[in-house]
Amino acid sequence: MSSPVLDVAAVRADFPLLAESVNDAPLAYLDSAATSQKPRVVLDAERDFLERSNAAVHRGAHTLAAEATELYEDARAAVAGFVGAAPDDLVWTHGATEGLNLVAYAIGNATAGRGAPESARFALRPGDELVITEAEHHANIVPWQELAARTGAVLRVIRIRDDGSLDLDHAAEVIGSRTRVVAFTHVSNVLGIVNPVAALVELAREVGALTVLDACQSAPHLPLDLPALGVDLAVFSGHKMQGPYGIGGLYGRGEVLAALPPFLTGGSMITRVTLERTEFLPPPQRFEAGTQPVSQAIALAAAVRYLDGLGMDRIHAHEQDLERRMREGLGAIEGVRLLGAAEGAERVALQAFVVDGVHAHDVGQLLDSRGIAVRVGHHCAEPVHARLGATASVRASAALYNTADEVDRLLDAVAGVRAFFGVSGVAAGAGGAGVTAGVRR
User: Around 440, how many Cα atoms within 13 Å sit in the side-chain half-sphere?
Assistant: First the structure.
């Protein structure tokens, strides 16, 4: 019987890059919220397909094309199963950003009268409302701003509290009879807090609104069952879940996908084309125009099989230990302010913070000089930083392959930041002296 504890040493051996050194120090990679490292099985899966089975899918009748198509659709089934979905409810995209744009533009096409008669249910009228939260990534803000601009709809925003938690009382005020879409993140890429999906879905259902979930920061870290969450649509990104770049997924409830008009059009998503009109395939192919990311889909399937083999429950338990160690350790350092400090909130192993008197970029460069890779800036989430009074932050994010020792290296380095820059007792966000960027050795 397998151990309930994740064997992190064995996991680390699966990731070639983690054995590298940066600036004469062992690499401590704490930037998985931006992009994750890839195990050998993922790298090998993509290479093996390209070397042995490469052919256009869904187009050829020859043996190699049939083999490629089978591998491609097997990958769809594996990735769909990882998030609790049926294969036909998973649309391949080139990433979560494309998935969110797909949904927004499809709704815009319905508003313009495109699509089958059932698409009319998504059509927006001037004054209809699109709802997001204050904690969204730009990819879940800008497409809705653009849709509002094209249709006359109104974009409304659910507030977060000072501690980073979502204000459900305000959500109940914002979501009302004119709400047509509620789009929100499962886990904020700045705050690390798991949002109350069930409560938001209930509010949306009461008024017949469509729910769209950004699951980019939950899919790699939590056991995920999207149908059980009750959302209508959800997106996730392969490169954040040990998979390759250029691949992501859009999950949709079958009846929702069937009613949405297409976004991108062209080959592979049609049943018949004449010079006068076109008939489209059913989902998921309706949303997969042109040449698809075939080798990437196969590599993403290898990634989810790898995660499943380790056990998402074990991964989550290991990362929860790292999360507590990181949050409590950072919170105990004088002059460090945590963004999203809500007590008792469910979290992933991600923490953004500000060091009083030292700019986030300087903190990041000092950490890099010691081989510790973190993210600095506003992390494509400028509004939540503005809400919490920070122009930029440092973000450390752990994954299945990180260790307690790496977290301790981070804590030790951050504890020395203010002394290194010779600052104390000054306002958070003030600039500090520059640090020369590190070099790879």
Answer: 4
The string over 398-426, giving b where at least 16 C-beta atoms fall within 10 Å of a residue's C-beta and e elsewhere, is bbbbbbeebbebbbebbbebbeebebeee
- Token pair in block for residue 350: 């991600």
Residues facing residue 22 across a β-bridge: 25, 440
| End-to-end Cα, the chain, rounded Å | 42
pTM above 0.90, yes or no: yes
Q: Are 32 and 397 in contact (CB under 8 A)?
A: yes
Token couple for 305: 């099989």
Q: Is 380 a catalytic residue?
A: yes
Torsion of CA 24, 30, 32, 36, to 10 degrees: 30
Q: Say whether the peptide bond before residue 87 is cis (omega within 30 degrees of 0).
A: no
How far apart, in whole angstroms, are the C-alpha atoms of residue 203 and residue 193?
Answer: 20
129 phi/psi in degrees, rounded to 5: -120, 140
Taking the CB of residue 263, how many other CB atoms lie within 10 A of it? 21
Catalytically annotated residue among 380, 404, 415, 428: 380
- Bridge-partner residues for 133, per DSSP? 158
Q: How far is CA 106 from its chain centroid?
A: 21
Q: Rounded to whole angstroms, what are the CA distances from 378 to 68, 137, 223, 354, 386?
A: 41, 10, 28, 11, 9
What is the spatial distance between Cα 195 and Cα 200, in angstroms, rounded to a whole number? Answer: 9
Q: Which residue bears the tokens 């954040």?
A: 240
Q: Which two tokens stand for residue 146?
A: 């653009």
What are 396's two structure tokens? 């450390």
> Which domains are present in the chain?
8-30+312-421 (3.90.1150.10), 45-308 (3.40.640.10)
Task: Return d(Cα 286, Cα 234) in angstroms, integer.
Answer: 17
* Tokens at 115, concatenated: 């699509």
Q: Tens of pLDDT along 17-60?
A: 999 999 999 999 999 999 999 999 999 999 999 999 999 999 77
CA 87 – CA 81 distance, rounded (Å): 7
Digit-coded pLDDT (tens) for 307-365: 999 999 999 999 999 999 999 999 999 999 999 989 999 999 999 999 999 999 999 99
